[in-house]
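Marked as duplicate of an earlier ticket. Keeping the data here for the record.
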Amino acid sequence: MTTSPARLWFLDWVRILAFFVLIVYHVGMYYVTWDWHVKSPFASHAIEPLMLLSSPWRLGLLFMVSGVASSLMLAKTSAARFLGQRSARLLLPLVFGMLVIVPPQAYLEVVEKLAYQGSYADFMQLYLGRYRGFCRGTDCLIMPTWNHLWFVAYLWVYTLLLGGLVAGLGSRVDRLAARVAASLVGWKIIALPFVALAIVRLLLQPRFPTTHALVDDWFNHANYVLLFLLGAMLARAPQFWPRAESLRWSALGIAAACWATLTICFALPDSLFIPQALEQMWNLQRILYSLFLWSAIVGVFGFAYRHLNRDSANRRYLVQAVFPVYIVHQTLIVVIAHAIQPARLAPVIEALVLIVLTMCLSFAVVDVARRSRVLRPLFGIAPVQASAKIQRASQEVTTH
Protein backbone atom coordinates (compact mmCIF):
# COMPACT_ATOMS: atom_id res chain seq x y z
CA MET A 1 0.00 0.00 0.00
CA THR A 2 1.20 3.54 -0.71
CA THR A 3 1.96 5.80 2.21
CA SER A 4 -1.32 6.87 3.77
CA PRO A 5 -2.03 9.63 6.24
CA ALA A 6 -2.19 8.59 9.85
CA ARG A 7 -5.55 10.30 10.18
CA LEU A 8 -8.39 11.16 7.86
CA TRP A 9 -10.72 12.66 10.40
CA PHE A 10 -12.36 14.87 7.82
CA LEU A 11 -13.90 11.90 6.00
CA ASP A 12 -15.67 10.88 9.19
CA TRP A 13 -17.09 14.40 9.44
CA VAL A 14 -18.10 14.34 5.76
CA ARG A 15 -20.07 11.14 6.33
CA ILE A 16 -21.66 12.46 9.52
CA LEU A 17 -22.74 15.73 7.93
CA ALA A 18 -23.97 13.98 4.77
CA PHE A 19 -26.35 11.85 6.82
CA PHE A 20 -27.67 14.93 8.62
CA VAL A 21 -28.30 16.55 5.23
CA LEU A 22 -30.16 13.36 4.28
CA ILE A 23 -32.58 13.83 7.20
CA VAL A 24 -33.38 17.38 6.12
CA TYR A 25 -33.72 16.22 2.51
CA HIS A 26 -36.20 13.49 3.42
CA VAL A 27 -38.25 15.96 5.43
CA GLY A 28 -38.26 18.09 2.30
CA MET A 29 -39.61 15.15 0.29
CA TYR A 30 -42.81 15.48 2.28
CA TYR A 31 -43.36 18.98 0.85
CA VAL A 32 -42.46 18.65 -2.85
CA THR A 33 -44.41 17.26 -5.78
CA TRP A 34 -42.02 14.34 -6.34
CA ASP A 35 -43.40 10.90 -5.49
CA TRP A 36 -42.81 9.81 -1.89
CA HIS A 37 -44.49 7.62 0.72
CA VAL A 38 -46.67 10.31 2.30
CA LYS A 39 -47.38 13.88 1.23
CA SER A 40 -48.16 17.13 2.96
CA PRO A 41 -51.40 18.93 2.03
CA PHE A 42 -49.06 21.88 1.34
CA ALA A 43 -46.84 19.98 -1.14
CA SER A 44 -45.79 22.17 -4.06
CA HIS A 45 -42.89 23.10 -6.34
CA ALA A 46 -41.78 25.88 -3.97
CA ILE A 47 -38.74 24.27 -2.30
CA GLU A 48 -37.70 21.99 -5.16
CA PRO A 49 -34.81 24.30 -6.15
CA LEU A 50 -33.54 24.03 -2.56
CA MET A 51 -33.77 20.24 -2.74
CA LEU A 52 -31.64 20.44 -5.88
CA LEU A 53 -28.82 21.93 -3.81
CA SER A 54 -27.95 18.45 -2.50
CA SER A 55 -29.82 15.86 -4.56
CA PRO A 56 -27.21 15.53 -7.36
CA TRP A 57 -24.22 14.75 -5.13
CA ARG A 58 -25.34 13.59 -1.67
CA LEU A 59 -25.54 9.84 -2.31
CA GLY A 60 -22.58 9.79 -4.64
CA LEU A 61 -20.53 11.39 -1.88
CA LEU A 62 -21.59 8.68 0.59
CA PHE A 63 -20.69 5.89 -1.82
CA MET A 64 -17.31 7.47 -2.48
CA VAL A 65 -16.54 7.84 1.23
CA SER A 66 -17.61 4.23 1.72
CA GLY A 67 -15.19 3.22 -1.02
CA VAL A 68 -12.37 5.03 0.79
CA ALA A 69 -13.25 3.33 4.06
CA SER A 70 -13.54 -0.12 2.52
CA SER A 71 -10.20 0.21 0.74
CA LEU A 72 -8.40 1.25 3.91
CA MET A 73 -9.91 -1.66 5.81
CA LEU A 74 -8.86 -4.10 3.08
CA ALA A 75 -5.30 -2.80 3.32
CA LYS A 76 -5.17 -4.02 6.93
CA THR A 77 -6.95 -7.38 6.74
CA SER A 78 -7.65 -10.26 4.38
CA ALA A 79 -10.40 -9.99 1.79
CA ALA A 80 -12.26 -12.96 3.31
CA ARG A 81 -12.26 -11.47 6.81
CA PHE A 82 -13.22 -8.06 5.48
CA LEU A 83 -16.17 -9.45 3.54
CA GLY A 84 -17.35 -11.43 6.55
CA GLN A 85 -17.23 -8.38 8.81
CA ARG A 86 -18.93 -6.10 6.30
CA SER A 87 -21.62 -8.64 5.52
CA ALA A 88 -22.54 -8.94 9.19
CA ARG A 89 -22.42 -5.18 9.63
CA LEU A 90 -24.66 -4.48 6.63
CA LEU A 91 -26.95 -7.47 6.11
CA LEU A 92 -28.24 -7.84 9.67
CA PRO A 93 -29.51 -4.21 9.78
CA LEU A 94 -30.90 -4.60 6.25
CA VAL A 95 -32.97 -7.68 7.10
CA PHE A 96 -34.03 -6.23 10.47
CA GLY A 97 -34.94 -2.97 8.78
CA MET A 98 -37.08 -4.65 6.13
CA LEU A 99 -38.98 -6.67 8.75
CA VAL A 100 -39.31 -4.11 11.55
CA ILE A 101 -38.24 -0.57 10.65
CA VAL A 102 -39.55 -0.09 7.10
CA PRO A 103 -43.10 -1.61 7.26
CA PRO A 104 -44.70 1.44 8.96
CA GLN A 105 -43.66 3.52 5.94
CA ALA A 106 -45.38 1.12 3.56
CA TYR A 107 -48.46 0.90 5.78
CA LEU A 108 -48.96 4.66 5.95
CA GLU A 109 -48.27 4.93 2.22
CA VAL A 110 -51.23 2.67 1.38
CA VAL A 111 -53.36 4.38 4.04
CA GLU A 112 -52.78 7.80 2.47
CA LYS A 113 -52.59 6.90 -1.20
CA LEU A 114 -55.08 4.05 -1.39
CA ALA A 115 -57.31 4.70 1.65
CA TYR A 116 -56.46 1.28 3.12
CA GLN A 117 -58.76 0.55 6.07
CA GLY A 118 -57.10 -2.50 7.59
CA SER A 119 -55.16 -2.55 10.85
CA TYR A 120 -51.37 -2.62 11.01
CA ALA A 121 -51.55 -6.31 11.99
CA ASP A 122 -53.68 -7.01 8.92
CA PHE A 123 -51.23 -5.11 6.76
CA MET A 124 -48.23 -7.03 8.14
CA GLN A 125 -49.81 -10.31 7.13
CA LEU A 126 -50.05 -8.97 3.58
CA TYR A 127 -46.55 -7.48 3.79
CA LEU A 128 -44.89 -10.72 4.86
CA GLY A 129 -47.06 -12.67 2.41
CA ARG A 130 -45.65 -10.62 -0.50
CA TYR A 131 -49.05 -9.20 -1.42
CA ARG A 132 -49.05 -7.42 -4.82
CA GLY A 133 -52.49 -5.84 -4.77
CA PHE A 134 -51.65 -2.32 -3.55
CA CYS A 135 -51.64 -0.61 -6.95
CA ARG A 136 -52.38 2.71 -8.60
CA GLY A 137 -52.74 1.75 -12.23
CA THR A 138 -49.61 -0.20 -13.14
CA ASP A 139 -47.66 1.17 -10.17
CA CYS A 140 -47.82 -1.53 -7.49
CA LEU A 141 -46.15 -1.58 -4.08
CA ILE A 142 -43.69 -4.47 -3.94
CA MET A 143 -43.49 -6.08 -0.50
CA PRO A 144 -41.41 -6.74 1.49
CA THR A 145 -39.48 -3.59 0.60
CA TRP A 146 -36.31 -1.89 1.75
CA ASN A 147 -37.32 1.70 0.87
CA HIS A 148 -34.48 4.00 1.99
CA LEU A 149 -32.35 1.01 3.02
CA TRP A 150 -31.61 0.32 -0.64
CA PHE A 151 -28.34 2.15 0.05
CA VAL A 152 -27.29 -0.64 2.42
CA ALA A 153 -28.07 -3.38 -0.11
CA TYR A 154 -26.15 -1.60 -2.85
CA LEU A 155 -23.21 -0.90 -0.57
CA TRP A 156 -22.98 -4.57 0.36
CA VAL A 157 -22.86 -5.58 -3.31
CA TYR A 158 -20.17 -3.00 -4.08
CA THR A 159 -18.23 -4.20 -1.05
CA LEU A 160 -18.26 -7.74 -2.45
CA LEU A 161 -17.04 -6.37 -5.78
CA LEU A 162 -14.16 -4.47 -4.19
CA GLY A 163 -13.17 -7.41 -2.02
CA GLY A 164 -13.05 -9.65 -5.07
CA LEU A 165 -10.99 -7.14 -7.04
CA VAL A 166 -8.47 -6.70 -4.23
CA ALA A 167 -8.21 -10.46 -3.71
CA GLY A 168 -7.68 -10.99 -7.42
CA LEU A 169 -5.33 -8.10 -8.16
CA GLY A 170 -3.25 -8.08 -4.98
CA SER A 171 -0.46 -5.50 -5.05
CA ARG A 172 -1.57 -4.34 -8.50
CA VAL A 173 -4.35 -2.42 -6.74
CA ASP A 174 -1.74 -0.04 -5.33
CA ARG A 175 -0.15 0.45 -8.74
CA LEU A 176 -3.56 1.16 -10.23
CA ALA A 177 -4.31 3.62 -7.43
CA ALA A 178 -1.00 5.38 -8.10
CA ARG A 179 -1.90 5.76 -11.78
CA VAL A 180 -5.34 7.14 -10.95
CA ALA A 181 -3.84 9.64 -8.51
CA ALA A 182 -1.16 10.66 -11.00
CA SER A 183 -3.83 11.47 -13.58
CA LEU A 184 -5.88 13.62 -11.19
CA VAL A 185 -3.85 16.82 -11.01
CA GLY A 186 -4.83 20.41 -11.68
CA TRP A 187 -7.85 20.88 -13.89
CA LYS A 188 -8.02 17.11 -14.50
CA ILE A 189 -9.32 16.63 -10.96
CA ILE A 190 -12.56 18.23 -12.12
CA ALA A 191 -12.54 17.26 -15.79
CA LEU A 192 -11.75 13.54 -15.91
CA PRO A 193 -14.26 12.19 -13.37
CA PHE A 194 -16.87 14.63 -14.68
CA VAL A 195 -16.48 13.32 -18.23
CA ALA A 196 -16.77 9.71 -17.05
CA LEU A 197 -19.89 10.50 -15.01
CA ALA A 198 -21.44 12.47 -17.86
CA ILE A 199 -20.90 9.60 -20.31
CA VAL A 200 -22.56 7.19 -17.90
CA ARG A 201 -25.53 9.53 -17.44
CA LEU A 202 -25.94 10.29 -21.14
CA LEU A 203 -25.77 6.64 -22.22
CA LEU A 204 -27.60 4.85 -19.42
CA GLN A 205 -30.05 7.17 -17.66
CA PRO A 206 -32.50 7.39 -20.61
CA ARG A 207 -32.57 3.57 -20.90
CA PHE A 208 -32.52 2.57 -17.22
CA PRO A 209 -34.61 4.82 -14.97
CA THR A 210 -34.01 4.65 -11.24
CA THR A 211 -35.71 1.72 -9.50
CA HIS A 212 -33.57 1.03 -6.39
CA ALA A 213 -34.52 -2.61 -6.98
CA LEU A 214 -30.88 -3.77 -7.35
CA VAL A 215 -31.41 -6.19 -10.24
CA ASP A 216 -32.43 -3.69 -12.95
CA ASP A 217 -30.99 -0.38 -11.76
CA TRP A 218 -28.11 -0.28 -14.21
CA PHE A 219 -27.65 3.46 -14.51
CA ASN A 220 -27.41 3.91 -10.75
CA HIS A 221 -25.04 0.95 -10.48
CA ALA A 222 -22.72 2.39 -13.10
CA ASN A 223 -22.83 5.82 -11.45
CA TYR A 224 -22.32 4.67 -7.87
CA VAL A 225 -19.82 1.89 -8.61
CA LEU A 226 -17.66 4.42 -10.46
CA LEU A 227 -17.62 6.71 -7.42
CA PHE A 228 -17.20 3.83 -4.95
CA LEU A 229 -14.19 2.43 -6.82
CA LEU A 230 -12.72 5.90 -7.33
CA GLY A 231 -12.91 6.39 -3.57
CA ALA A 232 -11.22 3.00 -3.10
CA MET A 233 -8.35 4.08 -5.35
CA LEU A 234 -7.93 7.53 -3.78
CA ALA A 235 -7.83 5.95 -0.31
CA ARG A 236 -4.38 4.71 -1.30
CA ALA A 237 -3.31 8.08 -2.72
CA PRO A 238 -3.13 10.55 0.18
CA GLN A 239 -1.70 13.23 -2.10
CA PHE A 240 -5.16 13.70 -3.64
CA TRP A 241 -6.76 15.39 -0.61
CA PRO A 242 -4.48 18.50 -0.53
CA ARG A 243 -5.15 18.86 -4.26
CA ALA A 244 -8.89 18.89 -3.59
CA GLU A 245 -8.31 21.49 -0.88
CA SER A 246 -6.56 23.78 -3.36
CA LEU A 247 -9.56 23.56 -5.72
CA ARG A 248 -12.27 23.96 -3.10
CA TRP A 249 -13.38 27.46 -4.06
CA SER A 250 -13.28 26.75 -7.79
CA ALA A 251 -15.28 23.57 -7.27
CA LEU A 252 -17.81 25.43 -5.14
CA GLY A 253 -18.19 28.10 -7.83
CA ILE A 254 -18.74 25.51 -10.56
CA ALA A 255 -21.30 23.68 -8.43
CA ALA A 256 -23.15 26.91 -7.65
CA ALA A 257 -23.29 27.87 -11.33
CA CYS A 258 -24.58 24.40 -12.24
CA TRP A 259 -27.28 24.62 -9.59
CA ALA A 260 -28.44 28.02 -10.84
CA THR A 261 -28.50 26.88 -14.47
CA LEU A 262 -30.30 23.63 -13.68
CA THR A 263 -32.89 25.52 -11.66
CA ILE A 264 -33.70 27.54 -14.76
CA CYS A 265 -33.67 24.50 -17.04
CA PHE A 266 -36.01 22.48 -14.83
CA ALA A 267 -38.43 25.42 -14.61
CA LEU A 268 -38.76 25.79 -18.39
CA PRO A 269 -41.92 24.08 -19.70
CA ASP A 270 -41.35 21.28 -22.21
CA SER A 271 -43.88 22.94 -24.50
CA LEU A 272 -41.31 25.61 -25.38
CA PHE A 273 -39.25 23.10 -27.35
CA ILE A 274 -39.81 21.01 -30.44
CA PRO A 275 -39.12 17.28 -29.80
CA GLN A 276 -35.57 17.35 -31.20
CA ALA A 277 -34.64 20.44 -29.19
CA LEU A 278 -36.24 18.96 -26.07
CA GLU A 279 -33.99 15.90 -26.26
CA GLN A 280 -30.96 18.17 -26.56
CA MET A 281 -32.14 20.14 -23.54
CA TRP A 282 -32.40 16.91 -21.54
CA ASN A 283 -28.86 15.98 -22.58
CA LEU A 284 -27.62 19.40 -21.52
CA GLN A 285 -29.29 18.90 -18.14
CA ARG A 286 -27.61 15.49 -17.78
CA ILE A 287 -24.20 17.04 -18.49
CA LEU A 288 -24.77 19.89 -16.04
CA TYR A 289 -26.07 17.44 -13.44
CA SER A 290 -22.87 15.39 -13.72
CA LEU A 291 -20.68 18.48 -13.46
CA PHE A 292 -22.67 19.63 -10.41
CA LEU A 293 -22.33 16.19 -8.83
CA TRP A 294 -18.57 15.93 -9.14
CA SER A 295 -17.63 19.56 -8.50
CA ALA A 296 -19.74 19.54 -5.33
CA ILE A 297 -17.98 16.37 -4.12
CA VAL A 298 -14.57 17.93 -4.76
CA GLY A 299 -15.67 21.07 -2.93
CA VAL A 300 -16.94 19.08 0.05
CA PHE A 301 -13.68 17.13 0.27
CA GLY A 302 -11.61 20.29 -0.09
CA PHE A 303 -13.41 22.31 2.58
CA ALA A 304 -13.62 19.33 4.94
CA TYR A 305 -9.89 18.63 4.57
CA ARG A 306 -9.19 22.28 5.28
CA HIS A 307 -11.49 22.77 8.27
CA LEU A 308 -12.55 19.41 9.73
CA ASN A 309 -9.41 17.27 9.74
CA ARG A 310 -9.41 16.80 13.51
CA ASP A 311 -10.64 14.40 16.14
CA SER A 312 -13.00 15.04 19.04
CA ALA A 313 -15.28 13.21 21.45
CA ASN A 314 -18.21 14.29 19.29
CA ARG A 315 -16.67 12.64 16.24
CA ARG A 316 -16.08 9.41 18.13
CA TYR A 317 -19.72 9.31 19.23
CA LEU A 318 -21.29 10.46 15.97
CA VAL A 319 -19.27 8.16 13.72
CA GLN A 320 -20.96 5.16 15.33
CA ALA A 321 -24.34 6.87 15.75
CA VAL A 322 -25.03 8.01 12.18
CA PHE A 323 -25.65 4.57 10.71
CA PRO A 324 -28.41 3.60 13.19
CA VAL A 325 -29.78 7.14 12.85
CA TYR A 326 -29.92 6.56 9.10
CA ILE A 327 -31.74 3.25 9.61
CA VAL A 328 -34.59 4.74 11.66
CA HIS A 329 -34.83 8.34 10.45
CA GLN A 330 -37.15 7.93 7.44
CA THR A 331 -39.67 5.81 9.31
CA LEU A 332 -39.76 8.45 12.05
CA ILE A 333 -40.34 11.21 9.48
CA VAL A 334 -43.20 9.32 7.82
CA VAL A 335 -44.89 8.33 11.09
CA ILE A 336 -44.55 11.76 12.70
CA ALA A 337 -45.68 13.60 9.55
CA HIS A 338 -48.79 11.45 9.31
CA ALA A 339 -49.54 11.76 13.03
CA ILE A 340 -49.31 15.56 13.21
CA GLN A 341 -51.37 16.34 10.10
CA PRO A 342 -54.51 17.09 12.17
CA ALA A 343 -52.61 19.90 13.95
CA ARG A 344 -52.45 21.78 10.60
CA LEU A 345 -49.25 23.58 11.50
CA ALA A 346 -47.88 26.14 9.07
CA PRO A 347 -45.49 24.34 6.66
CA VAL A 348 -42.31 26.02 7.91
CA ILE A 349 -43.15 25.31 11.56
CA GLU A 350 -44.25 21.77 10.72
CA ALA A 351 -40.98 21.09 8.88
CA LEU A 352 -38.92 22.35 11.83
CA VAL A 353 -40.98 20.15 14.16
CA LEU A 354 -40.35 17.16 11.92
CA ILE A 355 -36.59 17.79 11.84
CA VAL A 356 -36.32 18.31 15.61
CA LEU A 357 -38.44 15.29 16.55
CA THR A 358 -36.71 13.05 14.01
CA MET A 359 -33.26 14.04 15.28
CA CYS A 360 -34.17 13.65 18.95
CA LEU A 361 -35.97 10.34 18.56
CA SER A 362 -33.29 8.93 16.25
CA PHE A 363 -30.57 9.57 18.80
CA ALA A 364 -32.82 8.21 21.55
CA VAL A 365 -33.03 4.97 19.56
CA VAL A 366 -29.23 4.97 19.21
CA ASP A 367 -28.74 5.36 22.95
CA VAL A 368 -31.12 2.49 23.66
CA ALA A 369 -29.60 0.24 20.99
CA ARG A 370 -25.99 0.80 22.01
CA ARG A 371 -26.78 -0.41 25.53
CA SER A 372 -28.18 -3.74 24.31
CA ARG A 373 -26.05 -6.64 23.07
CA VAL A 374 -29.07 -7.85 21.07
CA LEU A 375 -29.89 -4.54 19.42
CA ARG A 376 -26.36 -3.36 18.63
CA PRO A 377 -25.81 -5.61 15.57
CA LEU A 378 -29.39 -5.06 14.37
CA PHE A 379 -28.69 -1.32 14.13
CA GLY A 380 -25.21 -1.71 12.67
CA ILE A 381 -23.39 -0.87 15.93
CA ALA A 382 -20.23 -2.88 16.52
CA PRO A 383 -20.26 -5.42 19.39
CA VAL A 384 -18.92 -4.10 22.68
CA GLN A 385 -15.75 -6.17 22.51
CA ALA A 386 -14.95 -4.70 19.08
CA SER A 387 -15.39 -1.06 20.11
CA ALA A 388 -11.74 -0.46 20.97
CA LYS A 389 -10.58 -1.89 17.65
CA ILE A 390 -13.06 0.25 15.73
CA GLN A 391 -11.94 3.37 17.55
CA ARG A 392 -8.36 2.65 16.51
CA ALA A 393 -9.42 1.97 12.94
CA SER A 394 -11.40 5.20 12.82
CA GLN A 395 -8.17 7.12 13.29
CA GLU A 396 -7.81 6.64 9.55
CA VAL A 397 -11.38 6.77 8.31
CA THR A 398 -14.89 5.78 9.15
CA THR A 399 -15.57 2.04 9.10
CA HIS A 400 -18.79 2.26 7.08
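See parent ticket for discussion. The CA atoms of residues 111 and 257 lie 41 Å apart.
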